[in-house]
Amino acid sequence: MITLNRLFDVEPWKIVENTLNTKDFRLAESVMSLGNGHMGMRGNFEEKYSGDFHQGSYIAGVWFPDKTRVGWWKNGYPNYFGKVINSTNFIGINVLLNSQELDLFSETIKDYSRELDMKHGVLTRSFTVIQDKKETSVKVTRFLSIAEKELAVIKYEIIPLNYDGDVTFIPYLDGDIRNEDSNYEEDFWVEVNKEVSSFEGSLTMKTKDNPFNTPTFHLTTTMKVEIDGPVRSVTSSIENEYVDNQIDLELTKGQSTTLYKYVAVTTDRDHEVGDLVQVGKDLLSKNIEKGYQQILKEHQEQWFKRWEIADVEIDGDPEAQQGIRFNLFQLFSTYYGEDSRLNIGPKGFTGEKYGGATYWDTEAYALPLYLATATPDVAENLLRYRHKQLDGAFHNARQQGLKGALYPMVTFTGVECHNEWEITFEEIHRNGAIAYAIYNYVNYTGDKGYLKRNGIDVLSSISRFWADRVHYNNKKEVYMIHGVTGPNEYENNVNNNWYTNLMAVWTLKYTLEVIEYLQSNNLDEHLKTLDLTDAEIAKWKEITEKMYFPYDKELDIFVQHDTFLDKDLIHASTLSPEERPLNQKWSWDKILRSCFIKQADVLQGMYFLNHEFTLSEKKKNFDFYEPMTVHESSLSPSIHAVLAAELGLEEKAFEMYHRTARLDLDNYNNDTEDGLHITSMTGAWLSIVQGFAGMRTANEALSFAPFIPASWNFYQFNIVYRDHYIKLNVCKDSVKISQQGSDLTLTLYGEKVQIPSEGTVIIPLKQKETTLQ
Amino acid sequence: MITLNRLFDVEPWKIVENTLNTKDFRLAESVMSLGNGHMGMRGNFEEKYSGDFHQGSYIAGVWFPDKTRVGWWKNGYPNYFGKVINSTNFIGINVLLNSQELDLFSETIKDYSRELDMKHGVLTRSFTVIQDKKETSVKVTRFLSIAEKELAVIKYEIIPLNYDGDVTFIPYLDGDIRNEDSNYEEDFWVEVNKEVSSFEGSLTMKTKDNPFNTPTFHLTTTMKVEIDGPVRSVTSSIENEYVDNQIDLELTKGQSTTLYKYVAVTTDRDHEVGDLVQVGKDLLSKNIEKGYQQILKEHQEQWFKRWEIADVEIDGDPEAQQGIRFNLFQLFSTYYGEDSRLNIGPKGFTGEKYGGATYWDTEAYALPLYLATATPDVAENLLRYRHKQLDGAFHNARQQGLKGALYPMVTFTGVECHNEWEITFEEIHRNGAIAYAIYNYVNYTGDKGYLKRNGIDVLSSISRFWADRVHYNNKKEVYMIHGVTGPNEYENNVNNNWYTNLMAVWTLKYTLEVIEYLQSNNLDEHLKTLDLTDAEIAKWKEITEKMYFPYDKELDIFVQHDTFLDKDLIHASTLSPEERPLNQKWSWDKILRSCFIKQADVLQGMYFLNHEFTLSEKKKNFDFYEPMTVHESSLSPSIHAVLAAELGLEEKAFEMYHRTARLDLDNYNNDTEDGLHITSMTGAWLSIVQGFAGMRTANEALSFAPFIPASWNFYQFNIVYRDHYIKLNVCKDSVKISQQGSDLTLTLYGEKVQIPSEGTVIIPLKQKETTLQ
């Protein structure tokens, strides 16, 4: 039903491309992206490429408030659209072979290969160029060190196979880079400083002053070049926003000539502006002294450590194996929790679309993975990020004329920077996810101390928003929430979206619980400063008791919103392949009126508050909604995989797993050329851990209920749970759980199991209940 | 409740400003606009003005497809946004008094006065400038001839009151003009030709080539200057997109010096490109030969003729009198039906906002006036305009994936050129107004021949659209229309907007009637070519029988849309003045969720299909909806005035009349600085003729049921009805109707009345029934 576009070989630890795909070049560029949390880039070529491509290098936390573009302005819109900005191209190395510029778009080449080595975090490219019967072998290696975050390294190796000749390398730094998605084709950068001499150069760019008074950033890229080969001459040139070296060498048939380009990427987020160049130079000197091999080794060792904790092994399904590793690799390349000023952008360092750094995706989809695969401070950093942005959230609510805090749909600072009214003004369920993340964190880690100050600040502010956003329907004597867009963005401006109402009421209930907890444990010193009145608390309570939830008695399902059942209700399976994805093939009018659901909506609520619904409720709603769901949001398949697994719908769970795990590798949504779907990359992990292995953590109790897909021999993964380091292995006939930490009690298939410190438990794999199917 | 901003004196035939309002300069510029159907302009000063102002001259039918600006693209959006374009400034005359440039923003002046003389179609300005005790009296007269449409005339007279000195006049043509609302600050014009010599000059501009393949336009402005005074020297200069003369004169104390600037404004819409300059010169020569006084006289005579037919006299209420004349003046300045390629833009020639030439306003609000105050061919031209654009309407429907014709919200060519999804994709009720206009025209004029070809083309195409746009609700066994925006644009994406459903069903019924009429009268030759199948016809019939209309039994009202009654229903009178207008003070989110109604919605249906509803139905719905209506669309008050009058709510009718009649004069909606609300200017006329006088024409029967507002002594107006020319005079105690034409039977207060050819009938004024109140 969906046409896939798979460009890459299936290998457990690598993404391999053996053909230069000029037609799908951008798609391959996205997939071949590298990142190290501090910076990242698309899989661009170092040398010239005259075909269609998208040069993209991005630095974490460096953004620009682009002038907004809307049709007709609506009151409440933010003033600017915050953008991750495309920055200095520091990987560039133009290459002239015998005075002819190397350009793979127009060359005759053979033995082309590009490999993303996920185990070691290295991108390599190799090919043989044939020019007038002269054959030259080229091999390029690139990595962004995760041991030394400000360091990028390129090794460019050339061997003339059947001739003697010349090569010219022109390593350069080019600051004349523009966002493709700039609303007014505006350049966001100005040059501040540049210097160049033999084998080195430096370029400092600064983001333009802007009328919105958001911070500006300085970015310095500093390069040093080493050559292993017979250099004939070196010259340098300096142009507007550009510096380069021009290095001429003699080539001898069969002999290798190698250029090493080391680049330091430093910004005034981390250093004084005046020090940027020197810091870069020092960093390069220090590292070059170590030598290429040592730098690479240190980088790889860090990747080994990451994989040691987080790797998920799957035996018997190479595509599934490659998919989960690709997701984890790109996710960790984007964010590994070291910097609490950062968050997880929807495209990471792989593209520009969507703008902004932070979406509700972080809380809804990414937090569980970081809770389970890193130390608690990483997850806490994600929460603190939102707490720090509370002022922005107050601002957003005020913009709508409402009390309390409205966390933004898209932001860098807490202030909303997206503007489509149906999203910005209406997709307010995001506020529920922010509150839910606090519950999730505290419940998972047991760190109730977080509630005392930051937690209650955010919870009470969100609750105040909900209490002002509802209205009372006098006739029906219920509270309602009108004019919202639910998680299903294929419907806008609906009334009483069940999920939004659910999360609003849940937030109010949880906030009331937390207040009670703080008060009864004498932890309410900070709480008292928040001026919550009795009337306010009473109103919150009343809303939780009198909220309206659309429900259909006949179908015994929760109704997505007031008039959903009035639609022409048909299954997505009736759509033809030519119509998919709908968002590219159908008019918006047709999409809005159709019953087709972009991503989990009612089911998103059953996923979050899983423990509050019966299996029968989950089953009925899943059976009703999933067939109408087109999963055209990258966030959709994982939620369905988890629920399908719980319901014993193993085939559906397996299908959804593949869809989320290989979303970008197989370009399911036909938009990976714009960049990878970073924030939904936790989906594969969620599908395996919460889905196939059935991990649940509600009410501070850990449980599993694993099954194994029919085609798999085994799968295994590790999780960090409080002070336990747990390894779970599921094979055809058994489940093996071992743990490091104090004695652990958990639930396995509904039965309590004790695992002693450093102990292991093995029990038989249980077949899923299928009575409900 | 509403704060008014009245800058002008109240006079029956004039708009007079006695203070130079630098703060509200744009507002005054809008009100002081002139137009002659071929061209028009804001009330800009001829000489330099360094304060805030908006230079605006517009030429009918000359437009440009501006690159669109939206937030996130939605499938189905049009490619461009069509704009009326700001054109060469041809009125400009810089003036130097004793070498000092005249600039009213910074001068000391006294006796300032600006007058728009509506009876004669002339704008004058007079003032005395005081520079170093030297006093100079200035008087400027400007008109755009309606006798010679391509001719503009300015008379600029100077008298040094207490000194001898110099004056320099610099009459110029400036083509370097840009739309303020250009999306990308783009210039839409390029220079093609210019020439200048003593006392004359010419400038030809061409609209830029555009990537959308819409037509380009050439605009030539040609000036000739005459001087009545002692010329010392004349020089000319030519610059980029600019030509001028510089004329130095000696001034003698107490003696008048006068400059006449005659400008011909010619375009390739009317002439060959190569002839434009010569045509302009010939036109100027011919007219200058006549002399200023004669040109003015011919212009004024045409205005007398217009007023003779259309003037509405009101005795006892100077504000009301001024209001209706201002509306008629500006309306006729925009469109007087001479050119079937043109339509009535929402801002006419007075501003840029909204873009586009044609809205549903024409059919819904303007057609009745042109039907009654002009020969039938004028109204037919408005219909033909839409018939000619049927291909565009097919295109628009295809863009949404739908069959048939969807007339655009905003257009020049029939192709939609507006893009806010909630308007373009959803405000489809406009299609109903296009169909209704055909009924209105045929019913009013009796010209059934129009149905044979053009009429049935449009009706069947719109019906095909409706039949594809509805969906069948299997559960409730009714047809529904989801995802629409009704006339109340303060709600978007609602389901089953009662008005939209009503007009859809009405269109289908009327189309079926017309088909039956054509078939049974052997007029179906063209109809047969339209390939309407029996199944299609049957489907249409079924929809008319099974359409769902929201209705509340308890309140006994038609419900605006499915969930309207779930809102917090409060009256607009509870809003504070600081909150008005809502669209400027409230967030869009708050507006959408509120019950407040921008303009007649359910009541719009009761206005159009007035004869299909009982008085009791009208009363109940009026009483329910009007109190929630904020009338923030300029189209709102008139409809409410008509219905209030019918319901005997005389005070409400009177309030609504004033609001529509003086909307711009008193700047009710706080946006007149952007331009006048041209298309809603028929509102005052509708309020008097259909409201106070109760004129109805449904079912080919003419009727009246007049009342007179308490403060008025009498009012009278004329209408053309078929071959009758009818004059109606309503005074405190009687109604007098006289007519020219064959014997006429009409209904007066429900009773048949015969008026013989050239006869008059006088009957006592009847008091309104108030039993329903």
How would you briefly describe this protein structure?
The structure is a homodimer of 773-residue chains. With 773 residues, chain A is α+β, with helices and mostly antiparallel strands.
- Please give the CATH architecture of one domain in chain A: Distorted Sandwich
**Helical residues, percent of chain A:** 25-40%
Helix vs. strand class of chain A: alpha+beta
User: In total, how many beta strands of chain A?
Assistant: 31
Shape of chain A: globular
SS strand fraction of chain A: 25-35%
Low-confidence stretches of chain A: none
CATH class of one domain in chain A: Mainly Beta
Query: Averaging pLDDT over every residue of chain A, what do you get?
Result: 94
Major sheet size, sense and barrel closure of chain A = 10 strands, antiparallel
**Spatial strand sequence of the major β-sheet of chain A:** 1-2-9-10-11-12-19-16-15-14
The CATH topology of one domain in chain A comes to Beta-galactosidase, Chain A, domain 5
Greatest interface (CB-CB under 8 A), with counts per chain: A-B, 48 and 48 residues
CATH superfamily of one domain in chain A: Glycoside hydrolase, family 65, N-terminal domain
Supply Rg of chain A: 27 Å
Please tally the helical runs of chain A, counting DSSP H or I stretches of 4 or more residues.
Answer: 20
Tell me the quaternary state. Answer: homodimer
N-C termini distance of chain A: 24 Å
Protein name (chains A, B): Maltose phosphorylase
Family (chains A, B): Belongs to the glycosyl hydrolase 65 family.
Organism (chains A, B): Litchfieldia salsa
GO molecular function (chains A, B): carbohydrate binding; glycosyltransferase activity; hydrolase activity, hydrolyzing O-glycosyl compounds
